[in-house]
Amino acid sequence: MPTQTIFVVDDDRDFRDSLVALLSTLGWKAQGFSSAEEFIEFYAAQPGCLILDIQMDGLNGIELYEQLLTQGKRLPVIFVTAHADINTAVSAMRTGAIDFLEKPFDRKALTRQIERALEIDEQWQRSEERFQQLNESVKELNPKDWETLELIIEGETNKSMAAKLHLTERAVELRRQRLMKRLNVRSLAELLELTVAHRVLAEVRAINQSQWPRLK
Questions:
Q1: How many CA atoms lie within 13 A of 98 on its CB side?
Q2: Which of 17, 49, 86, 140 is a Cys-bridge partner for 76, taking CB atoms 3.0 to 4.6 Å apart?
Q3: What is the pTM of this model?
């Protein structure tokens, strides 16, 4: 997995530079940005996490994060601010933030949340890689393959499938073999595991995307 980076977006230069230096000293790769616009122009879904100031000129931190989400770019975020209030904290957490810290924050608390954010990012990266691998295989299937696969998932036997599709059992068996070859699986158990995994990951992605518009 590529090296994770902690992105620090804050228009307070002294705070930003100090935090980047601290994170580097602690052994992390860190990079600072002076505005939401600068970060949006740079960011292309690299792994890591985001430490994001809420109060900035131009796009504020919450608007920046919502824009990332609408672009399909998921990155665990820790919001920070020097002017905390309940409404701001609620708005920040509703975006799916890992945490909301008020400046000046405790170094140990920040470290814990960064470790948690990077762990979540690793989980997201693995899930996305797994989905893309499965999706590439599934995209190769033709309509007959899908028809066969759906009947297999429903638990149909070769005999019942042959009756439903008006084929011989031998023709159904050949369809099964072709399907398993295209998906590069060697057993019915592997075939079902791959299918379930693909559907679950696709549903998780769909749920995440359906939630994004409500964040606005």
A1: 24
A2: 49
A3: 0.69
DSSP bridge partners of 52:
9, 79
- CA 61 to centroid of chain Cα atoms: 20
Q: How many Cβ atoms are within 10 Å of 151's Cβ, its own excluded?
A: 19
> Can you give the length of the chain in residues?
216
HSE, side-chain direction, 13 A CA sphere, residue 85: 4
Six-digit token string for 192: 């079902």
Which of 201, 177, 63, 192 has the alpha carbon at shortest distance from 129?
201
Residue 36 near residue 11, CB atoms below 8 Å: no
- What is the residue-wise DSSP string for 6-70? EEEE-S-HHHHHHHHHHHHHTT-EEEEESSHHHHHHH-SS-SEEEEEES--SSS-HHHHHHHHHH
- How do the pLDDT tens digits run along the chain, 216 residues long? 568 999 999 999 999 999 999 999 999 999 999 999 999 999 998 999 999 998 888 888 888 988 888 887 889 999 988 876 777 777 667 667 788 888 888 888 899 999 999 999 998 888 778 777 777 878 888 889 889 988 988 888 999 999 999 999 999 999 999 988 888 888 888 888 777 777 766 666 665 555 444 433
